[in-house]
Each structure stands twice: as structure tokens, then as C-alpha cells.
């Protein structure tokens, strides 16, 4: 049971967002732009960065739902998502994404961990400044989301089928649209 | 020099926000609601939470600018801001705020560090569910902002007068209004 009285039947961040729609709106807007909006990184690549950071932060809800979105974006390849979480250097992903995941992992441990060499390597593998910026901000944002979800002691059911199903909706419709389920219309926009 | 090419003359998060106005808008909206919007916690109390977390994350820019906003909200009491950063249990603040700062410090180290006892103590000292929620989210959000600012290697000039002056504007006008200086009008709203 969560540490504060959250609306029932909404696991993870959804209960917290329904509790405080004023903050839910910018949080949904942010994740929509970072993970679902137009970008030279694919949605699958961005969801893998979010999943990896959430896994490093040991947040069950976030790593499972974003892992499900990532898999949905990657033709259902759940094995690849798992491989990225445990050992991305040996995963079947681009060398550019590996360099971006190194940066994301550094951000997860602390902003000052990132070095000019990490960034130069990513750039040498084709990463643009916007891609590097977005990788840093996705990793930083999930250090927020993970702490928000775990810091309130939210309900995080162990129900793989639920995450898999919802992951497909989020991959298709995005965060702002799906949040309309549980946010007042004027808040969800 | 920052790791990516940011607009010149805008220190800390301001350069990163001017570089990517699409993400700057929800980030400004979030901090506006959390720190400047209507709340039963005063702006001074909320800025102290942001300052304390930024200090624990060793982010010079964020702890200095939010420390300056906090001082501006607290009749210029810079000594109190410093005391909260180094030893809040012995600072001249309410017992409720001390209990909320304990929760914020736990969130900074990781969401799972927060316990039911921490929350019960804050509630016993008069904290509401919204205040507990907002404390967790402010602390989580500054774990994002601090990583964003340091992870991009942004310019963070050591110029106390600059932060003090800007802190007064932010305390008075809030984040969305002040961001209009450097964001396109349609983005800053």
C-alpha cells in the first residue's frame, strides 16, 4: 500500500498522476516529447534507454512498463530488451546506441560521472548534439520517475501480461493520449 | 565548456533549455507548479527542499540559484539556507519541514530508501498527503535537474551576485515568466 492515499486500481506512476493532475500534465508532456515525439533516435532506442536506467535504479514498475513499450517498438523482441538491461555491450544494437547507453548509465550514477570522452565516443559513432542532449535528459528524467514511483511506495503488481498489453498501447498512442484514461480532460489536454 | 554546443551566455540549465525549447516547456511548467504555484507549503519551504537536494547531489548551479530564491523568500536569510544544507535538524525551521527534508534526503539517495516510518513522522508533525507527495516529487525532480545540468557539463559561473539578483526575480515572477527571456514566446507560453 502506498504511503499516501492514492486512487485505487492505478498501479505505479498512474496512481500518483491521478492524485495530482497538476504535476501529471507536465510529466506526461515531458515523457511524450522525450520518448514518443519526432526524433532521429527511434522510439525503440529511446525506450531502451529509459528501460536501462530504470533497471539500474531497480524500479520494477518503470523498467517493466518501458521494457514492454520497447519490446512493442522492436517487433516484440523481449529477449533484446532483457539483454540490454544486463549486458548492452553484447546486445544486437548499434554501436551508437551502446555509446549513448554508457552516457545514460553515467547520468544514472550522477551527472558529474559523464566525461568529454564519453561524449566524444558517442559523437564518433554518429550521435548528434540533440541525441546526446536527449540521452542525458531521458536518463535524468527516469532518475526522477523511478524515485517518484518508489518514493511514494506505489502499488506495482507483478503481472507481466498487464504490462505487455499496456506497453502496446503506449507504443502506438503515446503518453499524453493514454493518460486521458485517468486524468481530467483539461489536464491531459 | 559544455559537452554539446549550447547557446552562449546562458549558464546552467538556461543554456540547455534554450537549446531544446520543446523539453524546456514541460520542465518549466513542472518547476513552476512544484515551487511557485499555490501550495500549503510556502515557496521558501519548497525552495529549501530543492536547495537541500541539489546540495546533496553536489550541483553548484542548482543549489546556488535555488538557495538564492529560498533566501529571497525568507527575508534574505542566507545563513538559514546554508544551515539547512549542512545541518537542517538544528536549523530554525519547523519540525514538519525537518521531517519532510528527511524524506527528501532519502529520495535523493533512492526512492526505496523512504520508509513508512519517515512518512508517519511527517504526518505526525502536520504534513498533509499533498505535502508529502510534493516533497517526494520536488526531491525526485531535482535529481533530474541536477543530473541534466551536470551531465551536459554546462557552464556554471562562480558569481554570487548574479545568482542573488536572479533569485530575487524568480522568487517574485516564477519560472514560466522568467523563462520568457530566453525561450521563444510560443514555447515559454
Q: Can you offer a commentary on this structure?
A:
Two copies of one chain form a homodimer. Helix content of chain A is 69%, strand content 0%. The model of chain A has no long low-confidence stretch (mean pLDDT 96). Chain A is mainly alpha-helical. The radius of gyration of chain A is 16 Å and the shape is globular. Chain A has helices at 13-19, 21-36, 43-56, 60-73, 78-87, 95-109, 116-124, 129-151, 160-173, 175-179, 185-188. The first copy, chain A, has eleven helices and no strands. Chains A and B meet through helix 2, helix 6 and helix 8 of A and helix 2, helix 6 and helix 8 of B.
Outline:
The structure is a homodimer of 189-residue chains. The first copy, chain A, has 189 residues and is an all-alpha fold. The first copy, chain A, has helices at residues 13-19, 21-36, 43-56, 60-73, 78-87, 95-109, 116-124, 129-151, 160-173, 175-179, 185-188.
Amino acid at each position: 500500500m502506498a504511503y499516501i492515499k492514492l486512487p485505487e486500481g492505478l498501479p505505479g506512476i498512474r496512481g500518483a498522476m491521478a492524485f495530482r493532475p497538476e504535476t501529471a500534465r507536465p510529466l506526461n508532456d515531458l515523457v511524450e516529447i522525450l520518448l514518443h515525439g519526432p526524433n532521429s533516435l527511434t522510439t525503440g532506442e529511446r525506450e531502451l534507454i529509459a528501460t536501462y536506467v530504470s533497471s539500474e535504479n531497480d524500479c520494477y514498475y518503470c523498467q517493466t512498463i518501458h521494457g514492454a513499450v520497447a519490446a512493442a517498438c522492436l517487433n516484440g523482441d523481449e529477449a533484446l530488451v532483457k539483454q540490454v538491461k544486463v549486458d548492452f555491450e553484447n546486445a544486437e544494437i548499434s554501436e551508437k546506441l551502446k555509446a549513448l547507453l554508457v552516457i545514460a548509465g553515467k547520468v544514472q550514477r550522477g551527472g558529474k560521472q559523464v566525461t568529454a570522452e564519453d561524449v566524444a565516443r558517442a559523437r564518433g559513432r554518429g550521435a548528434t548534439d540533440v541525441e546526446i542532449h536527449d540521452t542525458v535528459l531521458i536518463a535524468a528524467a527516469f532518475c526522477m520517475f523511478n524515485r517518484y514511483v518508489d518514493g511514494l511506495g506505489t502499488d506495482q503488481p507483478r503481472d507481466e501480461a498487464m504490462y505487455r498489453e499496456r506497453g502496446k498501447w503506449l507504443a502506438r498512442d503515446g503518453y499524453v493520449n493514454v493518460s486521458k484514461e485517468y486524468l481530467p480532460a483539461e489536464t491531459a489536454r
